[in-house]
Amino acid sequence: MFLPVLLSTAVDGQTGKASYMTQATSTPTQTSNATLSALKCKECGAEYELKATHVCEYCFGPLEVKYDYNALRLSVTREKIQAGPNSIWRYRPFLPVTTDNVIDVGTGMTPLVRSHRLARRLGLNKLYIKNDAVNMPTLSFKDRVVSVALSRARELGFTTVSCASTGNLANSTAAIAAHAGLDCCVFIPADLEAGKILGSLIYSPTLMAVKGNYDQVNRLCSEVANTHGWGFVNINLRPYYSEGSKTLGFEVAEQLGWELPDHVVAPLASGSLFTKIYKGFQEFVEVGLVEGKKVRFSGAQAEGCSPIAQAFKEDRDFIKPVKPNTIAKSIAIGNPADGVYAVDIAKKTGGNIESVNDAEIIEGIKLLAETEGIFTETAGGTTVAVLKKLVEAGKIDPDETTVVYITGNGLKTQEAVQGYVGEPLTIDAKLDSFERALERSRTLDRLEWQQVLV
After folding, report:
1. Where is each Tryptophan synthase beta chain-like PALP domain found (predicted)?
2. DSSP character for 391?
């Protein structure tokens, strides 16, 4: 039986090191069909080789992948994409890999659901739900970024992969590493939900449960990455990893009939997902796959960890770190790496960034479940609650084509709604007992419908 290894944040780089774990070796992988050309600093524009590095050595800005858009424009068509696999790898030319030997576990191409009952409840006419609660293999959008990161890690010669995680990323890294035959060591805060701990342990990684919050976990992982030379998907592999989120933009554009929406509402943790959906839309416009239009970007945070929302409201171009205190642990990042870029996108597109409290998050989870039959985790509850808040404030036009992103499954965070969804009616195995209980339930239903009409 595998158990998490408890660590304090003061543990040195040698603690818990498994003897079988090895560093990367140099592996030539470049092929003629690759469209990525360099890593480029988002701040100063300095360019770097396509290696496992994520910070500019001149200005300490973050690095991202640069592509040859002229080559993409000449080679990619809608027809070629549609003829590709039913996964994120149909968009392979837009992803940072250099060979065809990718890790494809059926990730992506999740449903874009036209909402009727939730839309009617909110007074919206064209609401769509991008449902990554059913993404494979671990029921969250993190499967996208990890599939890309581990494909690139394997190209770079890594045999051990790792991550700092609030839960979903650990699940995904452990699962996809198991599929690919890579050694895996993942790091999580020790107070994580039980479902997410089990959701990693089942794949038999080395699981480090750190006594501290996510930001402390992340700092420890940066030290381990420097000491051991492992492939950390959201540290030294971050430029490649984050590109996987673009597929949430690509899929929505394709599923809307090769058109962009008018407004998107997405959760904000580090801010990376938000910025990469934006980049995905931009890239499709750049190569001529869709017509350009203004898409408003609105972000959702929990009040107990809302450094990006606070920066937006105070019109700041910097993030003030906070100590997380919310049930929405999967988006509880107190010092978000891409926060300033998320604020910039929301501002320049005419969007908004809002926060909601834990009670509103629970109501958001329940609202989505009872109107659309989708059980989301706390991040999705946050997003739905912010969507509702924006509608009530008149910040979403009822006739806009609006897409709300649901990024994880509620089975992972059942503790959040326990005690808020009622109890079963316990009856005897007799017809009259059933009839009495049925009448009781109908009376309760009538009282509820008097308050909320659908």
Report:
1. 106-408
2. H
Give the span between the Cα atoms of 352 and 451, in whole angstroms.
29
Best CA proximity match to 130, nearest among 145, 152, 114:
114
Structure tokens at 195: 């479902």
> CA-to-CA distance for 184 and 177, rounded, in angstroms?
6
Nearest to 165 by CA among 103, 96, 225, 213: 213
Mean pLDDT of 217-240: 95
Q: Read off the pLDDT band of 447 (50, 70, 90).
A: low
Q: What is the pLDDT of residues 182-218, one digit of tens each?
A: 999 999 999 988 999 999 999 999 999 999 999 999 9
Give this prediction's pTM: 0.90
Of 230, 91, 248, 249, which Cα lies nearest the Cα of 173? Answer: 230
Contact 401, 114 (CB under 8 A): no
Amino acid of residue 134: V
DSSP labels for 92-146?
Answer: GGGSS-SSS----SS-----EEEPSHHHHHHT-SEEEEEEGGG-TTTSBTHHHHH
Q: Token pair for residue 295?
A: 């898409």
Identify whether the C-beta of residue 288 lies closer than 8 Å to the C-beta of residue 380.
Answer: no
367 to 73, 118, 198, 415, 446: CA distances (angstroms)? 42, 8, 27, 17, 18
* All domains of the chain in start order, with CATH: 5-105+142-241 (3.40.50.1100), 112-138+244-416 (3.40.50.1100)
Question: Pairing relation of β-strands 160-164 and 183-189?
Answer: parallel
Tens digit of each residue's pLDDT (9 = 90 or more) over 253-304: 999 999 999 999 999 999 999 999 999 999 999 999 999 999 999 999 999 9
Give 251's contacts (C-beta < 8 A, 6+ positions apart). 108, 109, 110, 112, 130
Contact 364, 381 (CB under 8 A): yes
Q: Strand, helix or coil at 264?
A: strand
* Mean pLDDT in residue range 72-80: 98
Cis check for the bond before 137: say yes or no (omega within 30 of 0).
Answer: yes
Tens digits of per-residue pLDDT, 106-128? 999 999 999 999 999 999 999 99
Q: Which tens digits make up the pLDDT trace of 42-60?
A: 999 999 999 999 999 999 9
Residue bearing tokens 């069909």: 33
The DSSP bridge pattern shows strands 36-41 and 47-48 to be antiparallel
